[in-house]
Hints:
Elements: E1 5-6, H1 10-23, E2 35-38, E3 41-44, H2 56-74, H3 79-90, E4 94-95, E5 99-101, E6 104-110, E7 118-123, E8 132-135, E9 146-153, E10 159-166, E11 171-178, E12 183-184, E13 189-193, E14 198-200, E15 204-210, E16 225-231, E17 240-243, E18 253-258, E19 264-270, E20 277-282, E21 290-294, E22 301-307, E23 310-315, E24 323-328, E25 338-341, E26 347-353, E27 356-363, E28 366-373, E29 378-381, E30 389-392, E31 401-408, E32 411-419, E33 425-429, E34 440-448, E35 454-462, E36 473-476, H4 491-497, E37 502-506, H5 516-520, H6 528-543, E38 552-557, H7 559-570, E39 577-581, H8 600-603, H9 610-619, E40 633-639, H10 648-660, E41 667-672, H11 683-700, E42 703-705
Parallel strand pairs: 36-37, 36-38, 38-39, 39-40, 40-41
Antiparallel strand pairs: 1-42, 2-3, 4-6, 5-6, 6-7, 7-8, 9-10, 10-11, 11-12, 11-13, 14-15, 15-16, 16-17, 18-19, 19-20, 20-21, 22-23, 23-24, 24-25, 26-27, 27-28, 28-29, 30-31, 31-32, 32-33, 34-35, 35-37
Helix pairs in contact: 3-4, 3-11, 6-7
Amino acid sequence: MIGFTACQNGKENQSEKKENAMALNYPETKKVDTVDNYFGTEIKDPYRWLEDDQHEETKDWVKAENKVTFDYLDQISYQKELENRLTALWDYEKIGTPDKRGDYIYFSKNDGLQNQSVIYRYKKDEDPENAEVFLDPNKFSKDGTTSLDQYTFSENGKLMAYSISEGGSDWRKIIILDVESKKQVEDTLVDVKFSGVSWKGNEGFYYSSYDKPEGSELSAKTDQHKLYFHKLNTPQSEDEVIFGGIEEEKHRYVGGHVTEDDRFLVISAANTTSGNNLYIKDLEKENAEIITLIENDEANTNLLTNKGNKLYLLTDYEAPNNRIVTVDFNNPAEENWEDFIAESEKVLEASTANKYIFAHYMKDALTQIKQFDLDGKEIREVELPGLGTAGGFSARKEEEDVYYYFTNYVTPPTIYKYDLKSGDSEIYQQPEVDFNPEDYESKQVFYTSKDGTKVPMMITYKKGTEMNGKNPTMLYAYGGFNISLTPSFNVANVAWLEKGGIYAVPNLRGGGEYGREWHKAGTQMQKQNVFDDFIAAAEYLIEEDYTSSDYLAIRGGSNGGLLVGATMTQRPELMKVALPAVGVLDMLRYHTFTAGAGWAYDYGTAEDNEEMFKYLLGYSPLHNVKEGVEYPATMVTTGDHDDRVVPAHSFKFAAELQAKQSGDNPVLIRIETNAGHGAGKPTSMIIKEYADLYAFTLYNMGFEELP
């Protein structure tokens, strides 16, 4: 085979592995007599105490588990070699698209290995080579764990409001800078969560947050979101609640943004992650009322842009694959909506630039782009560099050019400058990665799931790889929340591919690749479809001799962590390694933490009814770990500051696996300290985590050394 060298003496290697596995002394995890009653069924929860992230016993358990994990990883001879290679691969310049605001053009740049990207700027009439550092997030904290979340400018470009995350938490702080002096003006806004920052002219901005919860801010429930307006030079305590805060109109997710012409405030309110109500307010009229555009929790609707009173809405109302409609602000009811771009068999998303709307079509998870003017005339289909994912095509109304990126599994994201009138594209920034795409192949296949559904999958590998069933294969998927996995380049995958590894990504039901119906087919009482699709992907790879169960690893994060947990407990013999990351693993209690109740559209809750409870219990990874079963070698990963999917999910699942695992496969949990769900994680931390994941995976597949 190409790449990794397996041990010549299989028996000797297995004996050595068994000895190592038996030498693992997991920390003793105490059990408590906690029992919940669901519709007359008692469910024990012996590790409930691990949900208390503030307790010293939990902190001691984390330290003890990490010691076992890192001691194990340190014994793998090639872990450091993988880390060095990943570091070398990561070390290339990364530049973001330019953003014109006020007298300056701003852009982000990472020299290569900086923990956080830096914001640079130059004046419009100056040479970009003379750009100066405007904001350096690497100076926010010594270890790089405080990150820049987002930034926006006042209408005149003289003020910037930016938000930061500390330790990976979803809680944010907002800081306002004078762009000329680069100095902070007024006090920092605190306790902001799941929020945009949208300026109203130059007088202030809208943002969203919850009341600070009682108990741990990292795990306590948050379910009443509010939209605030912060007027400059006033204390945060005086910020006006614009929407939300009324008990009978409670919403878990509320956001607001101002249209580019400063005419309207648009408010979205939702109780789950799918479906929203949409409201609008005329900011030019004093004491104007908030008007309803649509109240339908089953539909997703957003305002794209406006031309005076004419509103352009992207919606899946009566259009599962989305459509764009127009309506007059003065008569916004659904019966007055007119199709601007009708629904088609391809899923539609959209963006705006100047006086154009760009229709982003997705067919079998691949991108097509069409340009329209605001009267509905199709200007052209944008010629893309190849088959893959294109994004961007967003700019303010005065811009004559727009920028977009293109990528796929073997093409690093390249930024193009697009002339809005001529349709010509030119490369703006192309990364110089130590990687030759011509040496690799990435192809799409379709396989059949358990119920006969056809599912697409992208498979990427080095050309010349012999399909002999012995190739180490990483099967990665998500399958939920209407999220589409489209082809994208990840430099970390290069270290896997260049040694002969295969990387496979199926587009499971539950995602958004084929619109609302594809999403719904993987939700609530149909969630098992997602796991069946994933299992069928693994079986396809094995049947076609890409790999075998001895060389297959499954990986996924968040909802994808649930996917891995459910699959490994349902079919433990199917894979050699399981890598559930920041996973939703306790399906009976997920809705009791932070904003977890908002995921009920996808999952349902154990409190809904007895049928839903039994269905969740039937696949909940935590509750389906059985005594006497040999589970695959497992490394659970999470962060101690994850307040999206609280680490208690991972803690309890790992403890359950360690207590019940039969056979020699190790069960480890790697808990990143001062890290959250993933966003803003410093480069050094990401590289180390990938090196550990790859080393653990290959070692447990029986590979002793790297070539």
